[in-house]
Amino acid sequence: MQGKPVVVGGRPDRRGVVASASYEARTFGIKAGMPLFRAYQLCPQAIFIEGNFSRYREASERFLRILARYSPCLEPVGLDEAYLDATGCYSFGTPRQMAEHIKSEIKTKLKLTASIGIATCKVVAKIASDAGKPDGLVEVEPGNEREFLAPLPINSLPGVGRKTEAILKSLGVATIGQLAALPPTLT
Questions:
Q1: Fewer CB in 10 Å around end: N or C, the chain?
Q2: Whole-model pTM?
């Protein structure tokens, strides 16, 4: 199924929602949480499969064990996402070299790709990771956060969904840089 549009969640002729979708399926506009029948309308050639939570949990545990080898400061965020504090962890070299080791180990042991964002704070690291998907490694050097974030669309910020994005766009705010330029008194 590699390289094909795959939708996890069940059959499109039954009630249910998309649990996950391959990047190939996402190019058709398919997203997690979308009704399966809508996903089928967008991409009838997609392969629809049932989820297997026990296998996801097992893969997640293996993923987290890999990360735990690199730093004791590990904060899981979901089955396939975590924050790793690399402060003081120099066994694998620089944070970038550590990230390259992590990506390589995940690829070798789990046969999965991983996107990694490196930054001085979790929000910027998350945005950097998302910007590098799929299979990317984006490092935002200390002091370059504003330059990195400014041109990105406002919905790149965690927590900015469709409703908040619409409100901000009605105020003329389409990028993170435009949001940062608003006066603090604007509420």
A1: C
A2: 0.84
